[in-house]
Specification:
- The protein is mainly alpha-helical.
- The protein has a two-stranded antiparallel sheet. Strands 3-4 form a two-stranded antiparallel sheet.
- It is globular.
Amino acid sequence: MAYNPFYDEDLHHPGPPRIVFSRTEVLHLVVAALALTLGFSLIIADRTDALGGFMPKLDWEILLIAFVGVGTGFVLHELAHKVLAQRYGHWAEFRAQFTGLGLTVIIAAVTQFLFAAPGAVLIQGRVTPREHGLISLAGPGTNFVIAGVAIGGYLIGLSSSPTWGVNVADLAPRLLIGVAKINAVLALFNLVPLGPLDGRKILRWNGFVWAAALALAIVLLAAVYLNDPA
């Protein structure tokens, strides 16, 4: 049977579990990141009057904000799950959910609403409830740190620092607030205690930790929207 990079069943790495990436995992991460970048671009883009306000106005700044936001908010979120699981000695790799990615883009284009079903990190091994909870918490926890740094940089005026030879005074505030918004939204979304989301696994492990994480996600998202100039 020919090698299929999208569905390679390399479910076990030889030797003891370790932090390692397969070609299949890298390809799935890239495809998911590009699809989510398009989805978030469609969500945050302005709409023209054409076709009843349906057509999005995409430009390079919107694509850059979405790309950096997805790179930090989604890719690092999934890698946090993976790395911690592998540090505990388990096999762990990301696999995209291509139907979910397609729905994410379509729903974003039509409704400007987030429906994020990009896939998940698959884990194999004897995972204890505590490990499962901490592995699940690592993703939103990464979003907390990135959102906090981004909104902090926005508030202290880091955005006015010169760089690259472009008009950073205009671009950087939008980039920082956009990255903070995407990370805060993804953290809150993933903490919903339903289905395969992180919140359900964290709640099963420790209800207090889940409630504290949910409260922090709400506070972060509120801080982002209160300081969003848009």
